Amino acid sequence: MAGNCSKEDCHPHETGCNHEGCDVLTDCKFYGKDVAAKTDDVNKAEEDFFVRVPWTGNTMGLQDLNILSSNSKVNLIGITGAASAGKTTFLATLYCLLRQGASIGDYSFAGSLTLGGWESIAWYLSWKQHNSIQFPPHTSINAGRAPGLLHLSLRNTTGERKELVFTDAPGEWFEHWIANKNDPNAEGAVWIHRNADAFLLFADCEMLSGNELGKARQQTKLVADRLKYLLGKRPFGLIWSKADIEVDELIREQISGHIQNSPLENYREFQTSVREGEQEGFHSNILSSIEWIMQVTGGETNPPLMVSRHNTEDLFLSKRSV
Question: Residue 63 to residues 20, 24, 145, 247: CA-CA distances in angstroms?
Answer without folding.
Answer: 11, 10, 14, 41
